[in-house]
Write a structure and sequence with these properties.
binds oxaloacetate ion, Malate dehydrogenase, L-2-Hydroxyisocaproate Dehydrogenase, Chain A, domain 2, Rossmann fold, 21% strand, NAD, L-malate dehydrogenase (NAD+) activity, 10 helices, EC 1.1.1.37, binds 1,4-dihydronicotinamide adenine dinucleotide, alpha/beta, 14 strands, L-lactate dehydrogenase (NAD+) activity, globular, 2 domains, 6-stranded parallel sheet
Length: 313
Amino acid sequence: MKVTVVGAGNVGATCADVLAYREIANEVVLVDIKEGFAEGKALDIWQKAPINLYDTRTVGVTNDYSKTAGSDVVVITSGLPRKPGMTRDDLISTNAGIVQSVTENIVKYSPDAIIIVVSNPLDVMTYAAHITSKLPRTRVMGMAGILDTARYRAFLAEALNVSPKDIQAVLMGGHGDTMVPLPRYTTVGGIPVTELIDEETLNAIVERTKNGGGELVKLMGTSAWYAPGSAAAQMVEAIVRDQRRVFPVCVKLEGEYGIDGVYLGVPVILGKNGIEKIIELQLNEDEKQLLETSRGHVKEVMEALDNINAAKA
Ligand SMILES: NC(=O)C1=CN([C@@H]2O[C@H](COP(=O)(O)OP(=O)(O)OC[C@H]3O[C@@H](n4cnc5c(N)ncnc54)[C@H](O)[C@@H]3O)[C@@H](O)[C@H]2O)C=CC1
Ligand SMILES: O=C([O-])CC(=O)C(=O)O
């Protein structure tokens, strides 16, 4: 299995490292626009192989997409991260240009690839990659839900003083303040979380999860990478090993949840064909309302992208 990761920065290099040391792919190609940057990161990861004992080959290139030819999965992390005081949506004009040009190159050399978008604003960059690639929606998806649920699970594990391994959760909607955590679908070793935690603490955890990315941007001056890079690698693993894992993933909705033509995080089954199935949960009225707010927000930002593209045309 060959996997390309575009963008050898914080998230891209972390993802490539996880793909290599967990031997998720046989070959990982890292691509960056900065001369020598991807080459250096790939060489460093390869030199770690004798220490961590793996044989995944890691190769770095500066903008040479011919080396990515025949990739089974491509992860797009190229683009600016936000700085304190910015929203993810503030990145749209710069990152849309980057994601769209990267996608053109990817599809040229790997027409059969499955594309996982990580660049922000996530839902709208998934839209950008999808319309540029012209691939079926099952093969162009965005990573955010695994990260957002991981934050939620980590905060719950801390509050309950239990292993994060035993916390199962799902959330939906856009990757931003309007994300929709679903405490009703959160369990701890099979026990509904609401039986173990008081409402006030749970609400505080939900709010902290919504601001999870911003909390890290404030602390570090740039956004997170360990959890995001690992989350993207986990999606790659589900695809290349045909694991049929159930994850929240950003995908174009075509009627599911009563939504058409908007890219939102929903639970899916992820396997060798990409999105094997979108799972439709029964939402209550409050949850439906939260999802509708999220849909409205993502739709607005999609329209902003349409305007940017129309102005360029
Ligand atoms: N979906 C999610 O949950 C998350 C998304 N992100 C997003 O991922 C993106 C990357 O974040 P970081 O890795 O922290 O940023 P970074 O600045 O460390 O790395 C980005 C890399 O992209 C490269 N790049 C820029 N234009 C390029 C092009 N045309 N072709 C190839 N490479 C290009 C840059 O040279 C840089 O090395 C950001 O947009 C960030 O907001 C970050 C964390 C979580
Ligand atoms: O917060 C950001 O800008 C990066 C991101 O999407 C996250 O860490 O959730």
